[in-house]
Design a protein that fits this description.
Structural class: mainly alpha
Largest sheet: none
Order of helices and strands: HHHHHH
Shape: globular
Number of domains: 1
Distance between the termini: 10 Å
Number of helices: 6
């Protein structure tokens, strides 16, 4: 098992980079939706969907989601699932937007090997 160092400088650096990437992408897709590609149809958000996503589009919320401990994150997921069920429906516009922001343009763009090397 790898011993993980408690490195606040690394955490803060990762948070700043990743948070800015997420906020920039989320702001873009709230304003313009997702364009059609070979793999997906265009996604346009309704006014209500935009309103919901704008609640999450701030540094404080993104920081909380990135830094949350697993127990806290599970509670947050449960709360969000109850309040916004569309977040977990794979065919909903909001799910597609969140997947695009956090996975396709977030997680998939992180240099995972460098991150692991830095924390070990």
């Amino acid at each position: 098992m790898l011993k993980i160092q408690n490195n606040n400088a690394l955490v803060n650096s990762f948070l700043n980079d990743y948070q800015d990437m997420i906020l920039k992408r989320l702001t873009y897709v709230i304003n313009s939706g997702l364009h059609k590609t070979k793999k997906r149809k265009a996604v346009k958000l309704s006014a209500n969907e935009k309103k919901i996503l704008k609640k999450f589009n701030n540094k404080k919320t993104i920081q909380f989601l990135i830094l949350a401990q697993p127990k806290t994150l599970r509670r947050s997921i449960k709360y969000i699932s109850n309040k916004y069920p569309a977040f977990h429906k794979k065919n909903s516009n909001i799910y597609k937007i969140l997947y695009n922001v956090f996975i396709s343009n977030g997680y998939d763009n992180i240099d995972k090997f460098k991150f692991i090397k830095d924390i070990v």
